[in-house]
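Posting for a labmate who doesn't have an account.
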Amino acid sequence: MMGLYHTEDQAMLKDTVAPFLAETAPVKHLRALRDTNDQIGFARDLWKQFAEMGFTGILVPESDGGLGMGHVEAGIVLEEIGRNLTPSPFLTTAVAAVEALKGAGAHLRQEWFPRIVSGDAVIGLAIDEGAKHRPASTALVAERSGNGFRLSGKKQFVVHGHVADMLIVSARTAGAAGEEQGITLFAVPRDAAGLSLVADRLVDSQLAARVTLENVEVTADAVIGDVDGGWGPLTRLLDAGRIGAAAEMVGVGGGAMEMTFTYLKQRKQFGQLIGEFQALQHRAAHLYGEMEGARSIVLKAQHLMDDEDPRAELFVAAAKVKSGLACNLSVREGVQMHGGIGMTDEYDIGLYMKRDRALAEFFGDTHFHADRVARMNGY
């Protein structure tokens, strides 16, 4: 039975995650990493704490040493990550990469699942090659070499790629850029000869790598799924990342909204609380309704993902659109309702706007997914 609300166990998970992140990794944690020019992009000790709490193994099957939970539970963690702007490899490593590795051979599963569960591995997603998310446009070439492959090409926006222990790389083994067929997924270790990475700081202060592969040799065991048939596992990886990013945006938008509503109840103008002005009340009510709508469709998509429902891909795309629009509305209204101070770095609301900007692009923006929704409905 698909519920509109969390089950008792899921509510208990939220009651565990929310205070943990609010106490150990609130927004000032992000500020500290940014202001000290941290070159990792997240706190490794916090990642180990994620493992100790069991979060890193939420999506890992029980047979592989994980908790065997679903995207609803992963989304609970991601919403709190968004609410606190916590820098973490959880979305890329414990959600998207895990979903891809479920379709890998025993060798890769045995090598990486235990390390993810224990918080000893970070995995980068080397998918995008252009300014926008276009996974079918993969042009990085993988040529057969002996009993393996030789990879050559470039990737970018690989979040935490510069400190990743392994990269999941989409490459073209057949066909031409723009075709879904002919793509193969590879697990490329960080220390592979011919692999070089340069880190860039993104708008939200996270670090992402530009990756160059020059004749990088991998064995046949590095293939995730089937040769030329990587679009299936790639789609599962991306949809897990998309619904995860949507859940995180619900958290970012919710955190910004709560901060704004608190400000409306405290700030006075002309001897009156600004929250008593009807115009601002209308805007606040509209924002609340949009955020609740986003939360609902994200939860629906998570349930469909967990049920392996064929409609999941459609609802994930719709959820990425709706959460993107609602979160963007929340951060814009937040900055505006804070007035002049909303434009200063001293107030956290601007950091929420920056995080929204990055999440909006990750795994495809609202235009990309609105187009997918239209195409899946026959337009």
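Reply:
Got it, the structure tokens are right above this. The chain has eleven helices and ten strands.
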